[in-house]
Amino acid sequence: MQNTRLNTLVEQSGRSLSTWLNNPWRRFSLIALSWLLGFFLGSAVSTTTGATAVWDISSAVFSLVAVEVISRFCYRRNVATITPYAKQFLGLDMLNSLKQGYIYSMFLDAFKLGS
């Protein structure tokens, strides 16, 4: 690729973003925000579909498929190739955290409805 101003700007932005994300506290805060977003999405989905009672089955199927696909991507990584904590792929960790928050929200709503 040619060394244009745009190409140089994109490369420098990517390098500065990766050095910014190497800080463990920033990484932890992004993963925690992802978990909270998953919790919010789970609460919103269960509230919205529960109000209409028409989309219950289809939203349950969609949720199950989405959770299983995310689990397959996140846990398919080879344990021998995982690098130290700061070098792991942040996107997969955030996606896994989003899934965990979503599942926790669904369990909490199930306990609320069961009591």
Question: How would you characterize this protein structure?
Answer:
79% of the residues lie in helices and 0% in strands. The chain is an all-alpha fold and 115 residues long. The termini are far apart. The mean pLDDT is 86.
Using only C-alpha atoms, the radius of gyration works out to 19 Å
Computed structural class: mainly alpha
Number of strand elements? 0
Helix content: over 70%
Query: What is the string of SSEs from the N terminus onward?
Result: HHHH
Strand proportion: under 5%
Helical run tally: 4
Q: Main β-sheet: number of strands, strand sense, barrel status?
A: none
Number of domains: 1
What is the averaged pLDDT score? 86
Low-confidence stretches: none
Distance between the termini: 62 Å
Using the alpha-carbon principal axes, give the shape. Answer: elongated
Topology:
Layout: H1 5-21, H2 24-52, H3 56-75, H4 90-114
Helix pairs in contact: 2-4, 3-4
Summary of the model, kept short:
With 115 residues, the chain is mostly helical. The protein is built from four helices and no strands.
